[in-house]
Amino acid sequence: MTKKELRQKYKYLRQELSIEEIEHMSLAIANRLLTLDIWDNIYFHLFLTMENQKEVHTDVILSILAGKDKEVIVSRSDFTSCMMVHYLLTDNTKLVLSEYGIPEPVEGIEVPSNKMDVVFVPLLGFDVQGHRVGYGKGFYDRFLAECKPGVIKIGLSFFEAEPDTIPHNDTDVALDYCVTPQRVYSFGV
Which cofactor does the UniProt annotation name (predicted)? Predict the structure, then answer.
């Protein structure tokens, strides 16, 4: 399948999910994350859920991170440059919905990409080698390329891996892990 076909497939599958299924599967994903050896790290980049896209709800992950006293980083997207600016999430961070339905910080303390220890990556689909299909703008590939070597890249997916390799090129950054409600995939970590 092409990336375009895979995007259509997974957008359709997501739209078929009920709110109850999304909440149940998001909780299962968060619980599976607890089994990973990542919790000694400090700086965790977390995407905030686009509910209009029926993404994995990350509020439970946010609660886990807060409970473990981790530094949580969230981003604001610039659709002109297809780049993201990252901010420390604090009690004073004001979030607004962008025109695309993305909860984003208005302002705050900027954090450089090379500070991240762990990045939770939104995706539509992924394969057994850790290649992923996103929304097609390359925001996360650009961001992950700016991160320090050794940053841990964790995809979150409601669905299991595609058995066939997803088309990819040199600018596509593969995942280290992908967590689904049923299992944790590890890609050569």
Answer: Mg(2+)
d(CA 106, CA 1): 38
Q: Please indicate if the annotation marks 132 as binding a ligand.
A: yes
- Annotated binding residue 150: no
The residue ranges of every structural domain in the chain are 3-186
Annotated binding residue 138: yes
C-alpha span between 135 and 137 (Å, rounded)? 6
Q: Model's pTM, two decimal places?
A: 0.93
Q: How far apart are CA 99 and CA 105, in angstroms?
A: 13
| Residues 3-186, CATH architecture | 3-Layer(aba) Sandwich (3.40)
Stated as kind and residue range, the H or E segment containing 85 is strand 83-88
Q: Is 148 annotated as a binding residue?
A: no
Q: Is 160 annotated as a binding residue?
A: no
Digit-by-digit pLDDT tens for the chain (189 residues) are: 888 999 999 999 999 999 999 999 999 999 999 999 999 999 999 999 888 889 999 999 999 999 999 999 999 988 888 789 999 999 899 999 888 888 999 888 999 999 999 999 999 999 999 999 988 777 899 999 999 999 999 999 999 999 999 988 888 899 999 999 999 999 976
